[in-house]
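Box 3.1 A note on notation
Throughout this textbook, protein chains are presented in two layers. The first layer is the amino acid sequence; the second is a token string describing backbone geometry. Keep the layers aligned when reading.
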Amino acid sequence: MPTLPIATVKAFAHSERGGVAILFGFCAIVLTVAIGVAVDQARVHHSTSKLAAAADAAALAAGRALMAGAMSDEEIAELGQRFFHQNLTGGGEFADVTAVEVIPHRANSTIEVKVNAGVPTTFMRIAGVQTVAVPVDTVTTFEANDLELGIALDITGSMNGRKLADLKAAATDLISVLLPDGDRPNQVRIGLAPYAAAIQLGTYADRASNGTSRDGCVRERSGSSAYSDDSINDGGAFLGHGLFTDIDSTEGRQGYLCPMAEIVPLTEDKAALTASINGYVANGATAGHIGAQWAWNLISPNFASLWPSNSEPAPYRDGKTTKAVILMTDGIFNMAYVNGRSNAQALSICTGLGDKGVKVHTVAFEAPASARAMLQECARRAGGEFHDARDGDDLRQTFVAIAESLNGLRLTQ
């Protein structure tokens, strides 16, 4: 048997040729496994995101139904499951969903959604991992605080026609969301302050103006209480008919028309609110600061003595009542009387609202840039939210979103 020379054996033992190939082969295996794990993890992450989004949609839909109070627990659960599967279609294709539970908890006004699902693996099967579990839980809560809402709605001449019809539809939608048929876990009261060049107080005008109103309308008031919610006894009366000193209006004296639509104090009467809105007629100039002031007065405890007993506002910051104001307009505030520009007065009122902890939503409806800027500044001063509605459909969506926000429907987990 032939033998290799000793030198050849020693040379082979010390040779490093081929080591790189062995190392490359080992690294390739590790790299392939790593890529495979990354692919599976990406599938898991994708599926988890889609499942969570579908669960959130189900929770919010079921939460709205719970707030409405018209459905049974079984109907709410079915609705939530339907929303889950509709929102998952085409998005959670990697996951196998084995169970979806939608559980209403009426006692604490919450909806719980539990999802059991798993993502089948590809490369990780080599390591014996067949499926990665992706359970998803989410909870939506309805904060059942009482709500007092004052709404200042622009019914000036520029709103005539289609825009007024759009406003009526949007305001009716908002009321339907906030005052659904059936039982509710909280008290919701809404007041309306439709405004033009003044505001129509009807039977409340005599006291508010100290007998100076001849047509039921009042304007602003002067003095240190001009931009506050100081009571009539402490802050003085509002100007009534015939007191046109120092008019500041781009439309001049001709812009004044007393609106026909009367103010509506806080009420739970859905039919009365809807009927009032449907009766709006548009005319006159825009004294938006007066609308903002009386939307505030509707929810101010300092004006409790002016309103009927069942419309008296709760105290500020009582721990159980949310107070809010919506200020809506389609144009520039162009009508004022004794205190200078309407825009400047409105901004001072917005500051006062913020100081009292009132939630303020300003809404520009097909409004020019200057009006949008003013409403943005109003919301900023009050710590509130500005909304820019560019058409009728947008306005309806905006009002519904505000209503749902005020209802306190939110995801908590």
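The chain has two domains: 16-142, 146-411. Residues 243-254 have pLDDT under 50 and may be disordered.
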